[in-house]
Amino acid sequence: QVQLVESGGGLVQPGGSLRLSCAASESIFSFNAMGWYRQTPGNERELVAVITRGGVTNYADSVKGRFTISRDNAKSTVYLQMNSLKPEDTAVYSCNARRAWSVGSLDYWGKGTLVTVSS
Length: 119
Known about the structure:
single chain; mainly beta; seven-stranded mixed sheet; four-stranded antiparallel sheet
């Protein structure tokens, strides 16, 4: 069973920075893509950033220029560097890993880590 363990969440003031980590129990190259999603109460989970096996990255418009997704293959870990944080970035951030085949795909999720941006 694939395990994804997030860390790095917490309370930060507006304009501050945090780095989230997602440690996978298997090689991150075994996944087609890995990414970060976030969710606030009453809202659907939204994609924040994704990195493909080939290293292509994609970001939600709301975080472009502020957040950076990266990976350390040797540590099987994906990171989300969050700078210039805003109160509206407050959410539970969850790590996702996806395996895809011609007939479908399978998603794995971490339990999430809370990020609170407040003064």
